[in-house]
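Allow me, if you will, to draw on your knowledge of protein folds for a short while. I have a record of one protein: its chain in single-letter code and its fold written as discrete structure tokens. Could you please explain, in whatever detail you think fit, how the structure tokens follow from the sequence? The record follows directly beneath this note:
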Amino acid sequence: MILLKLISWPYVRQHLPRWLLTIAGIVLGVAVFVGIHTANQSVVYAFHQTVDRIAGSTQLQISAGETGFDENVLERVQAVPEVRVAVPVIEAVVSTGIQGQGNLLILGVDMTGDRSLRDYDLESGTDDDIDDPLVFLAQPDSLMVTETYARENHLGSGAKVPMSTMDGRKLFTIRGIMKSGGLTSAFGGNLAVMDVYAAQKVFGRGRKFDRIDLALKDGVNLENAKTRLEALLGTGFQVQVPSARAQQFDSISRVYTLTANVTSVFALFIGMFIIYNTFQIAVTQRRSEIGILRALGAARRQIRTLFLGESVVAGLFGSILGLLAGIAIARGMTSYIGSLLGEIYGIAQKADEISTNPWLMAFAVALGVITSVIAAIIPARSAARVDPVQALQKGKYQQLSAGENRARRIAALIVAILAAACLLFERYRVFFYVGDALAVLAALLLTPTLALLLARALRPLLRWIRPVEGTLAADSLLQAPRRTSGAVAALMLSLALVVALGGLTRASYDSIFGWLTVALNPDLFVSPSQSLTQRDFHFPESMGPQLRAIPGVGEVQLVRDARIEIQGKPTMFVAADVATLRRHATLPPVAGNTDEMFRLAEQGKAVLASENFAMLRGFKLGDVVDIPSPNGMLHLPIAGIVTDYSDEQGSLLADRALYKRYWNDSTVNIFRIYLAPGAAEADVKRRILDAFGNQRRLFVLTNREVRRYILRLTDQWFGITYVQIAVAVLVAVLGIVNTLTVSITDRRRELGVLQAVGGLRNQVRRTIWLEALAVGTVGLILGLALGALQLYYSLHISAEDMAGLRLSYEYPYPIALWLLPGILLVAFLSAIAPAETAVRGSLVEALEYE
């Protein structure tokens, strides 16, 4: 503590800008870590809260995935002796059309029994109708809304709320306003309650419920009741505690969570190299100070402890600043992530508030401090080994010894061999990930040597550009490879991940675009929602013949898709008329015979599986899939494996007749329409809207509009790539500024002599500028090369562990070409301030001798 007070604190005060550069890496890493994790957790936490608050005193919930089930199931559950109360529920998200209010969560319940599960605490003077549930039920246009929603929209009891239903646009009357708290805080307060039988009509559910909420009699064991209900209902139903619904959302959003984790860990890893480089700067700048302390008798352990103590303080201060910056980042990202996940997965969630998990905050601070200490270990050890005599010499450079360089190369060779060996056992995923880490470690070990070789290769070019300044800039890099290698390593890692993510994005984009062109080929799509992923509204089957009768319509495919649980994981189950699908399918299967697989699927004897379903679940052609339905378990083989990007968790395709028989559900999500020869797309779209616009809630989307919609979602999903590019730019700025700062400190005497013998200030400036451009060039070359290797690993990880899709290797040359001028420009801009520092320094101090 005494050394920190007497030695470190004066240095901080004297070199405050440089100290801020030291902690900038910690701030960057912790801010990205906290921002991404907090935003992601906020969305998940909001969904958990919505589920918990809507559940009320519900102990168990019965569902059959998103398909729903027949009303007679309710009677069977209510007859179970252990059940005290069981009520049906329909839950859906709608847009009321009120500007600026977003979505409204509708909870359809049976008021005759539901008030024993949920507390509808109404404002005084608004509960006359609600006190008698039968009165409320007798008025199918009744709504109860939250006090928050009513206040924000200036609504009172008796006010009318417009809503687009499956029978067209209707007005609903507010007959109850619920006080704030508990249930009403679900979905951010945008909640409305209506009669469950009215909800069936509004959403086109027919005679089906989404789930049953129930409470048990006093003294009944929860697990025993759960077991009895499962035996009664069969394998097609899930009997779960309410929190299990939220866990399903966690499972569905797993891929995005994994991507967020990779980004945040990457940011911290890059931050560690920035910290390492800045502590190397501190050691270099304070060599004379260290030498004096050692000459006065300070032990090596004390010098090492001094720098490690500084790293703890820097880590703590930087982590706190990063924490605040991360929370600010999370505020901007939470709503974006919530809407993105809602559009991709069809599960809308209102997450306007961030969830500041104290454990995450504490972990982030601890991680920042630990990262800072780890990054400072090597510089602290170097400081402890400084020879007092050399430390007191002016202009003494730190160089890599031949022995140290040789040891690094040998270690890198051994690590590279181990990384290649891990590929032989890549079927064991842990070896594949270890191999990836070892490949990065080998690159880091080789960075000083490669940086030195590239600097030598650049020397003639720099000398050709500016004979004097270029030579001085190149010699500066050659004389201090250790000083340069920290900035180069940070820049290399950052650019490598940008290239890997860019290549993954490009390959995914090309594959999705090809799939859209070949497989998603209907001319028009008739959907009950603007978002093709939202499945709350259902069309009646009778619309199919009516659409076929419209002039210009050639063929209509009826499609019903819903998530069901297979092997305990939510899976997209698609039911379509396989015969009509076969006539328009042009995409060859990944596995299986085209004619055979369609024939078996059409007969209801098999299913078709998407490639990502097969890979993520470990299925092969011919394997039997156990598919639970309300009418028993289906055991169907996989007759064909096809490319399908409709759901990142994977999908199964079955014939619609099979679905209707086992799920007793004839409703439709989407009508896929092929036009008759010579028919105009715009004319047929107008005719459909004229025929159904006033009777039904429907949207007619052209193939072009659907493609744009899917590609927009793809762009949003891969938006994290742009975050990586932004981090790469910050890494370039911090790393190059730090490197030039220590370079100027090391070369104060050299630069002073240059000016003393007549060197112009512009010559000094150009020397610093060229050195910055050289550092940026070396980092670019190594980063683009390492990125080629990391792209290989990223494609395999995406295929085996994330999306289950085999993508072709495509190096992202457009991104590389963009990075080339971008990073060099950033390098030049980063050199402006250090260059001005160099030319405005004192010549007397620069030329002094010991």
In short: Confidence is low (pLDDT under 50) at residues 395-401. The first strand starts at residue 60 and ends at 63. The radius of gyration is 33 Å. Residues 125 and 500 are 62 Å apart (CA to CA).
